[in-house]
Structures are given as C-alpha cells and as structure tokens.
Design a protein that fits this description.
Blueprint lengths: L2 H11 L11 E5 L2 E4 L4 E4 L2 H4 L8 H11 L12 H12 L3 E7 L2 H15 L4 E5 L8 H5 L4 H4 L9 E4 L3 H7 L4 E6 L2 E2 L5 E2 L2 H14 L2 E5 L23 E4 L10 E6 L19 H14 L2 H19 L4 E7 L2 E6 L3 H12 L1 E2 L1 E2 L4 E4 L7 H16 L1
Parallel strand pairs: 3-15, 5-6, 5-7, 7-10, 10-11
Antiparallel strand pairs: 1-2, 2-3, 4-12, 8-9, 11-12, 13-14, 14-17, 16-17
Helix pairs in contact: 3-10, 4-10, 8-9, 11-13, 12-13
Length: about 375
C-alpha cells in the first residue's frame, strides 16, 4: 500500500487520537529505520523510549521466536517459567520485593496507586506539577496537566499536586498520605531531572508519616540514564517503582516492582490482567533486561550521553540542555515541533518535541560515537537553514 492509501484507511477506520507524521516505516535495525521507499533514517526517539537496545536486537528476536513457537498464552491462572524468571530478575536487580506484571506504563501506575491505597485505605496521593503518569483514569488523575485532564473530568479524587520544590512537597505529606508518586526525571514535560534535595525531601516525608514513596521509571529506567535504574544515581531508594517502555525490548509489558515493606500488600483478587507477563513478552523482557544490565553498555550510555549533550550545547538556536545519559532535551529559540518535522522530512532524523520550544532526544543505548556525530550534523543543517 502507498502512504496515501494508509492515510485514507486511517481517515475512515482509525479513531483520530494521533497526529501522525507522513512517513511509513517498514524495517528497523539497530539505530536505523527504513521507510517504504527504502530511505534510511537515524532514530533518536526509539518509539518514545521503547527500543533502547535498537530495533530488532538479535537476542530479543531469538527469544521471541523460540517462545512463540512453543507457547504464546495460558493466562495467570497457571505458571509459566518466563514470567517467574523475569520477576525474580527484576526484584534482584532493584528493590528486592515482588513484582506485578501488566501491559504498559499507565497500567503499572494504576497498580501502584492501588497498592498504596490498599496499604493506607483512603489515603491521598501526592504528585508534582509537570508530571505525566499515563492516560487511564487513575494515572491521568495523577497527571496534573489541564489540557490532558479537563476533557475527561470528573477524575479520580484524592490526588494532590504540588510544585516540584522540597518544602512544598514535604508540607503536602501527612498522616493521610498513602503515597508520593514521582518521576526521578520528568519525561513528557521536557526531560526535567528532579533535584537530589527534592527526592531526599520526599523520602524523609514519607518515612515520617508512613507513606509509600513510588518512583515512576517508565521512561527513565532500563539503562536510559546510564545506570539500570535512575534511582541508583539519586541516593534515594523508593518503596516501589513502575517500569515499562524498554522492558519488553519492543513488545508491550509493564511492571510494578515493590520493596520488601509493600511486597505482600496485594492479595489474590485485588488486581489482575489477562495478558500480563505472558510467556512471549516475558521472554523478550528477560533478554532485554539481561542486555541492559551489562556494564559496558551502561558505560557507553554515560559516555555517548555526555558527547551528545556537549554537541547539542554548541548548536545554533540551542539554549539549555537537560537530562542524564541518553535521556536528553534542549530548549530552542525557534519552534521545536517544526524543527522535529523538518529533521524527519529533510534530514531523515527521527526525534520529537515535547513542547513549543523543547526538543527531546531518546536514542538507542547501543548508539555509536559516529552516530552521535551524524545526528548532530543532521540537526545542525536543520537549525542553520
């Protein structure tokens, strides 16, 4: 089918909730994508932080193919080895508690909210302005952005949004608080790392009042910042965390991971998902997690991230550069959405804008130094034109 034919099918058959760019991708390998005409594109978006290991990583593909040929689904009424092994590996590499599997980051945050409110019945959940935790009702209620919330009111009650400032957060937590839910690096609002002081304030307030501190690592986890989990760089350990996006190596999976204190809060029947932790996606995730733990890969993320950030700061029209590792954004003095569009159509460079002046870069973690330089050259040509 031609692109025009696909656009006509979308017009007549697909709910209009996406503003797609006029490109059809048909193949991917590593940091590269190819469109329907065979044109090669350099991918610095990774399906919004999903293909961290590059497109079609051979070990992930092999795990999927082998498992798909043996067993694809039986539900969580029965045991399957991939899900049990993945849960153990997630726990061992992070908080040491237990894991609930689901299918997305929003679902993981829904599970986290239920966990917190089971632990402290009727408690409020404190969130930060600028946060994004998903688009399902609980997760949306934890996302204090007027444009996203207003069309779908009334929302789930019991959420309190405060400024991303240590004192404001500490004052918002009391004996009625079930949880503080925060992203160590706010992704959708423009890659904004939270200060160590803010995270330490959240930890202290939760400890004082018996609330749960939950980190949303849906976008910043799985090696994206140069350590397997972003919290490892902060000096603050949460009581639970949510992960998704890159966990499946390209397939949909999410997880709520608890520490020991909250490990046994949820009981049979409290929460469930038909497809969660299915053998195919769990096999893919196990391969992706093992690859993402490798010290050489994580060291490369830190080195390439520094190289990319330094290069961005020297480009025309670029002001502030923010982020950690290969989770970066830069502020422009020109329209970022137009820059992203021109980069795609004129330079075959895939990235995106998260706001009127904010350009976000989420390249694959297997990125080479030469590809960093290539990306900077492509972006420079757009900005200088």
């Amino acid at each position: 089918m031609t692109l025009a034919e696909l656009q006509e099918l979308e017009r007549t058959s697909v709910v209009g909730s996406y503003a797609r760019l006029p490109v059809e991708f048909v193949r991917g390998e590593g940091a590269l994508l190819w469109d329907e005409h065979g044109n090669e594109h350099l991918d610095f978006l990774c399906g919004i932080g999903v293909t961290n290991l590059g497109h079609c990583h051979p070990r992930v593909v092999a795990a999927v193919c082998e498992q798909a040929g043996r067993l694809m689904h039986v539900s969580n009424l029965f045991y399957t080895e991939p899900a049990m092994r993945l849960a153990a590996r997630l726990s061992q590499t992070s908080l040491g508690g237990k894991v609930f599997f689901c299918n997305s980051g929003a679902e993981a945050n829904e599970a986290a909210i239920k966990l917190a409110r089971k632990a402290r019945a009727g408690g409020d959940v404190v969130v930060l302005h600028g946060a994004f935790h998903g688009r399902t009702y609980g997760a949306l209620s934890a996302t204090p952005q007027e444009a996203k919330q207003a069309p779908f009111a009334p929302l789930v009650p019991g959420f309190r949004a405060v400024a991303a400032e240590p004192r404001a957060l500490a004052e918002a937590v009391d004996e009625r608080t079930a949880a503080v839910l925060i992203e160590p690096i706010q992704g959708e609002s423009g890659v904004r790392p939270l200060s160590h002081e803010l995270l330490a304030s959240a930890r202290a307030a939760c400890d004082e009042h018996g609330a749960a501190l939950i980190f949303d690592e849906v976008q910043c986890g799985m090696g994206r910042t140069g350590t397997l989990w972003a919290y490892e760089q902060t000096g603050v350990r949460p009581d639970a965390m949510t992960v998704a996006k890159a966990l499946g190596g390209g397939l949909p999976i999410g997880a709520l991971v608890t520490g020991e204190r909250l490990a046994d809060v949820l009981a049979p029947g409290d929460h469930a998902s038909t497809f969660a932790g299915g053998p195919v996606v769990a096999s893919a995730a196990l391969a992706a997690l093992e690859l993402s733990e490798e010290p050489e890969l994580l060291a490369g993320v830190r080195e390439r991230g520094g190289r990319l950030a330094d290069g961005l700061a020297r480009l025309p029209h670029v002001g502030e550069v923010r982020g950690r590792g290969l989770m970066l954004a830069c502020e422009l003095d020109v329209a970022a959405p137009e820059v992203a569009r021109r980069a795609l159509l004129e330079q075959r460079h895939v990235l995106n804008a998260t706001g009127p002046t904010t350009l976000r870069l989420l390249p694959p973690l297997i990125l080479s130094g030469a590809q960093v330089d290539d990306a900077l050259a492509r972006l420079r040509r757009v900005l200088e034109a």
